[in-house]
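Quick illustration, no need to memorize.
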Amino acid sequence: MTESWFEAPTLTGEHVRLEPLGHEHADALVIASDDPSIFQWTAAPIDTRADALAYIDVASENPDRVAFAQVAVKTGAVVGTTSFYQIDPAHRSLAIGSTWLSKAAQGTGINPESKLLLMRRAFDDLGAVRVEWHTDEFNKQSRAAITKLGAQFEGLLRKHRQRLDGSWRTTALFAMTDEDWPAIAPQLERRVRT
């Protein structure tokens, strides 16, 4: 069932719906990119429709990535993106990332529920044994959010990715295993409900 690891089913929660990212989301992504600071730590800022289309094309052309638009259930507005990447069915592992949210959606239930939906898909549906997160070592907001999900910090990967300005970032690596998931799932579900 290797193919199922590369499928992008629509995943729906109380706050957010994750749907396969496509060109139809381009204009909405421009609207969602409501503050340049949300792209401080990424290599692909979105400012124009052309930027959004290029972002979508890069995501869809990567054979090891499954990208989703994050849609606020209450309003139907696209508020950002998130992805599975480094998908490795043979070793039953993948990473969650390439996530950004509009400023207006930050601090709401959207991000934790988005991660809950993705982790259910990874652990419960696909049978993953390991899920990873990668972020810039200096991105305190992202590191705190990943830790709050219940992922464990595993170390630093030096000169791991190139930043937009050409400098090399050290990546903070976090992970969760299938052994961690049964205790974390109910905690995250409670957090999303409150």
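The domain at 2-193 is CATH 3.40.630.30 (Aminopeptidase).
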